[in-house]
Model the fold of this input.
Amino acid sequence: MTTDTDLASKTCLPCQGGIAPLGLDEARRMMGQLDGWSLSETGTAITRRFAFKGFAKAVETANLAAWLGNKQGHHPDIAFGWGYCAVTFTTHEAGGLTENDFICAARLDALMA
Ligand SMILES: C[C@H](O)[C@H](O)[C@H]1CNC2=NC(N)=NC(=O)C2=N1
Done:
């Protein structure tokens, strides 16, 4: 999809309070630009669960997601253990999803590809 490339080439804007989160319809529309991510039931977060055959890859992925978050100034919630790493993006300042979450998701996908 060409739109994936577009999202991954964007840079997160600093999050500020008072920003309205994307509505559920808009969030669903944005999901069309990502593969492998799932939208939370409330439409306020997106998660991708990476599966591996061991622990080292899970740790590597957690580190990569943390590095990306620091670089973009937009920080994911990360859970990992043997065989998996789950990365969740939401915009705390907005109380839901913003384009920043989709940018970081697309950037992580590009790094993992
Ligand atoms: C000032 C700074 O941009 C904000 O505190 C950032 C930092 N990282 C963040 N990360 C995420 N995931 N959501 C935020 O709202 C957020 N806010």
Observations:
- The two ends are 14 Å apart (CA to CA).
- The pocket of H2B is lined by residues 14-15, 73-75, 90-93 (CB under 6 Å).
- The longest strand covers residues 46-51.
